[in-house]
Amino acid sequence: MSHSTNISTTSVAAVDLFCGAGGLTHGLERAGISVRAGVDLDPACRYPYEENNKADFWEKSVVDVTADEIRAAWGKAKYRVLAGCAPCQPFSTYMQGKVDSSDARWNLLDEFARLVRDCDPHIVTMENVPRLEEQDVFEKFKASLRASGFEEVTTRVVNCAEYGIPQKRRRLVLLASKFGKLELLPPKSTKQKTVMDVIGDLPRLVAGQIDPKDILHQSCSLSPTNMDRIKNSKPGGSWRDWSEDLRTNCHKKESGKNYASVYGRMRWEEPSPTITTQFFGFGNGRFGHPEQDRALSFREGAILQSFPKDYKFVRKGAVLNKTAIGRLIGNAVPVKLGEVIGKSILGHLQQIQSS
Ligand SMILES: C[S@@+](CC[C@H](N)C(=O)[O-])C[C@H]1O[C@@H](n2cnc3c(N)ncnc32)[C@H](O)[C@@H]1O
Fold this sequence. Notes:
The chain is of the alpha/beta class.
């Protein structure tokens, strides 16, 4: 898909810090930005990142990335973008009340700020969970952007479903430009995409089965009890729909009342719940298939994150490492959100160029 501006595709170069399997990179590339490199210390990212994108993969910690390396990757491009999405677990709602300020991941925002200061990008963008906005580290990050010459930093909390992504996922998007105010494009008022729209046509599977044509389209096997549970689960429902004998001990306790959203089925006619790194397990959220008695397959999770249906995550003939692939998919910036970020940047640069 090409962008609607006429800036040349090589004039805007980006480096993606904390690039994962390439959700953000793929979206930026689709918008028309030339992503030169992605940095991540997780070796599992290399294959999907390089196989589906033009950018190089640097397997290292952002802590060890130098300003010279980033400048060399940008080369002679007219406009330089530094993008990134520091790990969000310390700030996610799942960690509510458990935020540990000594967590080393807090410092990764400082590392991002260091690179902004030392590399002199024209544009900076960062995606994260909305709770980051409440943290001092975020204020510090924005202050350091201002000190690096970004007079106006904009943030927007989006629900991805408003952007045609078939998933309810709230995310914070930060944008900053040396040329003036840069804002995320607003959503186009289109009908929301549903689970049915995007995975309704995938081959049927039973729990534990692998589609012979697509190793990603496999769903985890279920214990006999969990099979009973899913058979008794309704789309949009929860464990409350089950008879007493199927409930777990934690559901029976008073405190279990807070866990209404685990062990549910999705509804066909709505966007999915937030795809987490654990989405392939029936007991980990509302991740039951709307009508088949199984959890989501890895391909279904990736599609709900708006990865293209043929995005390659594992080398041909290789065994799928479920934990690693779940992590890459659940952690990704939805590709379509990345594309909106890219189009916002290109639209802004186009305006600057023509003014
Ligand atoms: C939220 S995910 C990024 C997702 C990615 N932007 C995408 O769209 O697919 C955060 C990533 O940061 C990586 N990470 C964590 N600590 C890191 C570090 N010190 N240096 C580089 N990458 C790191 C993790 O391996 C993870 O892939």
